[in-house]
Specification:
elongated, 5-stranded parallel beta sheet, Rossmann fold, 10 helices, Elongation Factor Tu (Ef-tu), domain 3, 6-stranded antiparallel beta sheet, 13 strands, 324 residues, alpha/beta, disordered N terminus
Amino acid sequence: MNKRVDARRSDVSGSVVVIGNFDGVHPGHREVLAVARATEPDLPLIVVTFWPHPASVVRPGGGPKLLTDLADRVALLRAAGADEVKVVDFTQEFSQLTPAQFVEQVLLPLHPTRVVVGENFRFGHKAAGTLATLRELGAGVFEVTGLPLVKVRDEETCSSAVRAAVAAGDVRHAAELLGRPFRFRGVVQHGDHRGRELGFPTANLPVPAAFAAPADGVYAGYLTRLDGRDGHGVPLPPGAPAASWPAAISVGTNPTFDGEEHRVESFVLDRHDLDLYGADIAVDFDQRIRGQVKFAGVDALIEQMDADVSATREALQHNASLDR
């Protein structure tokens, strides 16, 4: 049995706290925040999340591919209703905390009136703490609400399911599970400049080993500039929406030219005048066009790229008509 935390409620009015990794901030995560807000509407909603991913610390080199970076995770949590996001630095030392120490060091300083978590929540050294443990440790100090996983078409929504869909290149299913298109974000870097030479200039993003990217292939989607500037780097008027364009997106290593670096390369349709080097951009994946292919030569590659652009245009136009 776990020893109950020795604590008394302070003079602080309290808070409602939700805890989790929240990678991707999918509908299941957002439901936890919504229930917390609805249950305690008069209290500040504090989200506790962890960085880096606990699995990457407990099993170095074995953590999952991340769906979002920390900045995007915090922004998505705030958009979902969090008043404050507390990021816990997950270290080897932190991983050794017992469940009681976790409650004492992480939760009690937030003065929770209620803690809301998914029913599969685990905490403390070797994930020894369960929902029942949390209720026992919080007895007389805070209430605990455990929620089942949200389902999409009878499939439980979880970050692992999203990662599996992304890894398979099924970006449409990933979007269903996320409640929005899968997004890959980064700063545009100079590549080989081969695309420009072939008539298809691309905005190139390297794929860090720690982050998820769709299976190698070509996709239809959108490129959005996130730094408040237009395609030429000119600041947009205050309040103007972010500049965004339809794009044919290639994910892979460019095997026709024996490339090695894994990249997300986006060709914006009908635009050869954009200056995006050094820009913070987001690439939203709409649907898969084809898998990665190594071509026998440049002519065959250009012919296929023309076909990819046509397929991308048709796919995005079709989807736009369905949305109306």
